[in-house]
């Protein structure tokens, strides 16, 4: 990536002292456990130690926004990785759960000015979920962990740039 005056560099390493929340929906636990494992592996690779990760499990994806909010406000987290799995069924339940989860997480992120990463699978069937959660393949939990680190670094870089103005 080209950098110039005012460009915020990205390193892939966690900024010093970073605290990350990992909120995981228990519904479809076989899948969400793999997402959690991928997120934690990505955070560890970026230098985030276990004692800097606050992990909580909630009943399902619908409950993730509240958990994310509390992790930012009361838990002292710099970012939250929200992980869940919503699989389309025969009713409209999927649309409500997936849509409200996404809207809620976005609202928390904007209201508190801190990254809340959407690591919730919204898939048509179990095969798609398995493919996206496989730790040795395209684990979306790992991607969410990487995104949290990048966004923290970006926001801190913007703040530092503003101080120099």
Written overview of the protein:
The longest helix has 25 residues. The protein is 48% helix and 18% strand. The protein is α/β, with parallel strands linked by helices. It has one domain: Lumazine/riboflavin synthase (Rossmann fold), CATH 3.40.50.960. The radius of gyration is 16 Å and the shape is globular. Helix 1 packs across helix 5.
Q: What attributes characterize this protein structure?
A:
alpha/beta; 18% strand; 5 helices; four-stranded parallel beta sheet; Rossmann fold; 165 residues
Unreliable segments of 5+ consecutive residues:
none
Q: How many separate helices?
A: 5
Spatial sequence of strands, sheet with the most strands: 2-1-3-4
Largest sheet data: 4 strands, parallel
- Count of discrete structural domains: 1
Question: How many angstroms separate the termini?
Answer: 23 Å
Work out the strand percent.
15-25%
The CATH architecture category equals 3-Layer(aba) Sandwich
């Amino acid at each position: 990536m080209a950098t110039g005056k005012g460009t915020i560099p990205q390193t892939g390493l966690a900024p010093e002292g970073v605290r990350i929340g990992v909120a995981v929906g228990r519904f479809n636990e076989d899948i969400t456990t793999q997402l959690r494992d991928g997120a934690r592996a990505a955070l560890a690779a970026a230098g985030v130690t276990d004692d800097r990760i606050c992990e909580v499990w909630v009943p399902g994806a619908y409950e993730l926004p509240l958990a994310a909010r509390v992790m930012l406000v009361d838990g002292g987290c710099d970012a939250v990785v929200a992980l869940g799995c919503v699989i389309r069924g025969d009713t409209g339940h999927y649309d409500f759960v997936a849509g409200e989860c996404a809207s809620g997480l976005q609202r928390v992120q904007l209201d508190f000015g801190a990254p809340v990463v959407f690591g919730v699978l919204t898939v048509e069937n179990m095969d798609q979920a398995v493919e996206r959660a496989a730790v040795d393949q395209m684990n979306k939990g790992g991607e969410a962990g990487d995104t949290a680190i990048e966004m923290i670094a970006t926001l801190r870089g913007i703040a530092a740039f503003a101080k120099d103005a």
